């Protein structure tokens, strides 16, 4: 295979296909729907961004996929096909087999994701010992290799250090090393650089890009940062109040959004061209999950809203090749 | 620059660190800056560079080890008693976390009126105070009715508005905004930035705007100061610092920030390694351990001030300023 072909996403063969994922949370004041009928697919060599503000359900989607939902949250519908297995209905044993070998996740907060009581060498060697049955010595050697691969200086000596002895950026590298250790086909990165400074963020994103090409992984990048999506992702799914409201190739969605929420987000970013001007913000706040309105989830903040929006929820319909939007009036978004 | 309001000269502050022997952590290592009336100074830099220590020193919970602060010609650290109290009114702060910075057991009205418990002379009686609270709530766009509600009844953006109203209660000349929008969602962030901008237009306040988000700083600041390990390594008019950075660190920082607008993207400069510990800053130029232009001289002597010949007030501390290198200018 040529170098160019290697970088091209495998467009026809999604490795992960999520269909109709729905998650409910039981709260003392009733059950709320945190993720509603979310469908997307991820392809090898490609980055899909799940973009949205806090509470939109993007992280809940990720935790549901990797099976780490809090006990108060339940998957109540949908399937997630990965390597001929439905992740959502698989039993614990099957899930465990697939953890790391097929599906891996990198969390935002690397300090809490690492065990403070074990050396990083032990933690990095763990996947090799469990899944490949390696001896401690063999697994340690693999760990050193991995640490070198993700750019940790002096891996031989750092092997015996504890997580608190590493900086934030180095910890995130360790987490990434653990995630890619067993060459998974899908890597979910949940706000992987939000806690990091920009120069370190640039290093980590460059590392993720390299690893994606090297292992031909599908990367699902969960973030609230539009600029990061613009630079790192191939496709984007914009989420609002538990629903995907728009999907498509990043360049097209950002250049010509077909949902008023996407347009509103884009307008809120301070860009140099409009320096000093008033920013166009989105009025109001996202709806309380206890009181999601009938009809469109965005109606209360939408400048295009009219009668039909209050009664009928717009389906996520095709608005051009590879693009979908859940709006009754996608043609008018350009005026927002 | 407009009329000078705040003058900081060679400010130093260090802290003792446990188990470090006689070594002290040098948080501010000779900070010099000016702030004009009605001006916004953006302060950028990565975690641990001393931004927040500088804010705390200007707010006066920290006393500097050396250096001077002049506010309208007055040294606030020389004031005592009534004079000091009167001075404190003039510099107020808006905090990063709108959840932690408001007392959940006080109503919005009480939170905004609380500063007047120390500054007793400002309003004569309860009626005047209540009127002013309602006025402030209107000013920040919450409406007078919000006075009786408690913080938990508000969203993050609304809470930040309460924090801003509290800062305005004492009619300050300067508000130090320490990452005021970084805890907020994008759509709400835009609302709060617009509010800060409007208030500046109406009241003529100066802001020191601390943020790690470069696109936000570029949007709000008139001038920018870039900090690295306790020093301001480059400062100047916002446009100049962003468009023609003279210090390699500034250039790397600007290039590292992801940009929404493809036209603004430049070739990314990936820095090696991370910020060294402020307990053990490198000799000479503190950026040299990560700098691709570093030579021997950078390790032996502190970098001189390099000026931008085309933009007044744009200076950087570097032995090898980028603007002296024609090849860098061409790409910028």
Explain the overall architecture.
The complex is a heterodimer of chains A (336) and B (332). With 336 residues, chain A is an alpha/beta fold. Chain A has helices at residues 3-7, 58-66, 92-98, 110-113, 120-132, 136-149, 155-158, 168-180, 198-215, 226-232, 250-255, 260-268, 307-311; strands at 14-27, 30-43, 47-51, 73-82, 85-86, 103-106, 186-190, 218-223, 235-240, 243-249, 317-318, 324-325. In chain A, the strands form 2 sheets. Chain A has an 8-stranded mixed beta sheet with strand order 6-7-8-3-9-10-12-11, with helices on both faces. Chain A is globular. Chain B has one domain: Rossmann fold. In chain B, helix 7 (186-203) links the parallel strand 6 (174-178) and strand 7 (206-210). In chain B, helix 6 (156-168) runs parallel beside helix 7 (186-203). The longest helix of chain B is centred in the middle third of the chain and has 18 residues, at 186-203. The radius of gyration of chain B is 21 Å and the shape is globular. Chain A binds chain B through residues 53-54, 167, 169-170, 197-203, 205-206, 224-228, 230-232, 254, 264-273, 275-276, 278-283, 285-286, and chain B through 46-47, 155, 157, 185-191, 193-194, 197, 212, 214-216, 218-220, 242, 252-253, 255-262, 264-265, 268, 270-271, 274-275.
**CA distance, first residue to last residue of chain A:** 46 Å
Pairing-aware structural class of the strands and helices of chain A?
Answer: alpha/beta
Number of domains of chain A: 1
Poorly predicted segments of chain A: 1-7
Report the portion of residues of chain A in β strands: 15-25%
Gap between N and C termini of chain B? 26 Å
Please give the largest β-sheet of chain B. 8 strands, mixed
Principal-axes shape call of chain B: globular
Helix count from the secondary structure assignment of chain B: 12
CATH architectural label of chain B: 3-Layer(aba) Sandwich
Q: What is the count of structural domains of chain B?
A: 1
Number of strands of chain A: 12
Radius of gyration of chain B: 21 Å
Q: Measured on Cα atoms, how large is the radius of gyration of chain A? A: 21 Å
